[in-house]
Every structure is written in structure tokens, then in C-alpha cells.
Amino acid sequence: MRRTLAPERRDCATRNPDEFAAFLESVYGARLGVRAPAPAARPYRISCVATPAAVAGELELPGTLGFAAGPPALLVVSTLLAGHVTVADGREEHRFGPGHTFLSGRPGRPRTARTEDAAVESLAVPWTAVQAAAHRTGPCSRRPVRFTGLAPLDDAGAGIWRRTADFVRRSLFATDPRPAPLVLAESGRLLAATALAVFPNDTVPAPADRTEGPDGTSDTLRRAVAFIDDNADRDIGLADIAGSVPVTPRALQYAFARHAGTTPLAYLRRVRLAQVHAELQAADPAGPVTVTEVAARWGFGHAGRFAAAYRAAYGASPSQTLRFRAGD
Predict the structure, then answer these.
(1) How much of the chain, in percent, has pLDDT values that exceed 70?
(2) What is the DSSP string of 152-178?
(3) In this predicted structure, what is the pLDDT of residue 228?
(4) Average pLDDT score over the chain
(5) pTM of the model as a whole
(6) What are the CA-CA distances from residue 25 to residues 30, 134, 234, 254 (Å)?
(7) Residue 14: pLDDT band with limits 50, 70, 90
(8) What is the DSSP letter of 133?
(9) What is the C-alpha separation between 245 and 173, in angstroms, rounded?
(10) Of 28-37, 227-236, 269-278, 307-316, which range is least confident?
(11) Rounded CA gap, 242 and 82, in Å?
(12) Which residue ranges traverse the bilayer (predicted)?
């Protein structure tokens, strides 16, 4: 996509996945194939604003779409507003839900993705800007920056990215007055530096033990996962999990981000959700067990958030699982 000094806005709305893929290629500069197993009830939409320093996009992807993409031409960071996205990056596969922020790809690595009724906000910066930011922020060889995970190092980092992204998006989409060229240029440098600080990469010294075992996962991750699996019924938090390894909380978050594409507390919630699911499946629908009771026992106190997380994970409500057990 040609980028002038002034912000350039482009929009696309189509039900044709090939047309949509061609438009995305023109925006993000990467070879892309899109497959839709069935016609979408609503058109695929994207609104984007591009400058030489950054590209901001808002995408609506109804139904289910499959993407096959070559190595990305830009560093693209996405925040999922609704739906789900599964990204397969090399041998790693990551599934993201509403509220998650993640890299849509890494340099030099083709990837595939699947979206399910997704609404996405994205910001993209040239790889040259990321490389320049790495040289400015510390010693770095001339080789390309290598990101080692798609998810932020921790929840705090994800929050930093979202606040930075909100500021930049407001600048890019502003029409009255138009942002000054210097502001636009600085916004791209700000995004590049923030991405290096937030997402795991080889320009930032590892915060702790990065020793990997024969299966390619870290000792830190294996020990933490074992502790969580054995103690999910207890009142444990980040400090307890880190202390069981033992490593610092930041080192623990790094290990989960790099090797599992998630956070320790998100994994803990997933384990507890699986326990709720198992108990509801095993319960007698005519007996005294209630969804509220089981959810509370596993630490889910907010009924609305629990129900939404359960449905996203299992495709049914907790009460449906209790009433209609598998095999009944």
C-alpha cells in the first residue's frame, strides 16, 4: 500500500474472501490466502489509516475464515475485541479470545490463522522501525530482531501496549486538526519501542532461567504447570506459583509467554474451568448440584464472566452441560 505523508484512509466491505484477501495484501504487504467454508451473513469489513510510520486497522470478520500467509512485511499487533483467533506460527499454535493482544506474525515465518466471528483492532509498523528501535534502546547486533513469542510478557505489558495503541490510534484517525507529520513519525517509533518492551524477543536479556528440555519447553514452565495442576483447588496466585519453581514472578510470566503463549493466571483459570466442566459432566442432572455451587468452589465468583468464559471454551452454557451430559 502506497503511504503518503498525510494519513490515507481506505475502507473495504465485501462478502468475497478473495477480494478481501487482495485488499489486506495491499494494506499489510504480505502474501495472503483466505478461505471461507461458507458465505458470511455479513460482509467482511476493514477500515484503515496508513502513514509511512504506522498503519491502524479496524476489522470485522464474520463467520469462520482461514488464513494462510507468508512472512509478514510489517510488525502487526492485534487486539481482539470479540470472537476468537487461532494462530499457528511454525510448530506453535495459540488461541486468543476477547481482550487478548498478540503479534499476528513474526519475521521470516509463514503462518496460518483461523478467525471465528472476530472483531480486531490492529496497529502495524515497518520492520525497519523495529530494528532501529532495537539499536537505540541497547546493544544489538545487525541481525534482524527475533520475537520469541506472540503474547505479551505479562498482563502489565499488555496494558502498556493497549494504552500506547489508544493514543496512536486517536492521532491517526484524527481529522480535525490533522496530526502534524512529526507526531506521526514519532508515533511509529513509539509503537516499535513499545513492542520491543512488551513482547518477548532476543534483544531483551532473559529475566531468569531459560533452560529448555528435550521437548522444547522450559523447566520453569514444566514446574509451574505441575504446581498449578496439583493446587488449582487452593487459593493460589502469581507469587505462590513463582515461589514453587522458584523464580521471580516476571521470569514466570516470561516462560509462559514464550513457551505457552499465555500467562500463568490465564492457565490457572483454564485448569479451574476444566475442573468445573468435568464436575458438571459427572453430576446427576436431577441431583442437588448447582452450577453456582461448582463454579464458586473453583473460584469463579462473577456469574456473567464465568458463563462467558465457559461458553467460549466448551461451546455450551454450564447449565446445558449439567442437563445434557455427554452420552445421555
Answers:
(1) 86
(2) -SSHHHHHHHHHHHHHHHHHHH--SSP
(3) 93
(4) 82
(5) 0.61
(6) 5, 27, 49, 32
(7) very high
(8) H
(9) 46
(10) 28-37
(11) 31
(12) none
Give the integer Cα–Cα distance in Å for 258 and 239: 19
Cα separation of the two ends of the chain: 55
Closest CA to 239 of 255, 230, 221, 251: 251
pLDDT in tens, 16-44: 988 999 999 888 877 788 888 777 789 99
220 touches 209 (CB < 8 A): yes
The Cα–Cα gap between 88 and 254 comes to 20
Q: Please write the tens of the pLDDT for every residue from 200-222.
A: 887 755 444 444 444 345 788 88
Q: What is the residue type of 288?
A: P
What is the rounded (10 degree) CA torsion for 291, 296, 297, 299? 130
- 16-37 burial string, b = 16+ CB within 10 Å, else e? ebeebbebbbebbbbebebebe
Per DSSP, the residues of 228-249 read HHHHTTS---HHHHHHHTT--H
> Residue 46 corresponds to which cell in the numbers above?
476493514
* Residue 87 C-beta-side C-alpha neighbours within 13 Å: 24
Outline where DSSP puts E strands in the chain.
Answer: 8-14, 32-35, 44-50, 55-69, 74-89, 92-96, 101-103, 111-126
CA dihedral sign of residues 303, 309, 313, 315: positive
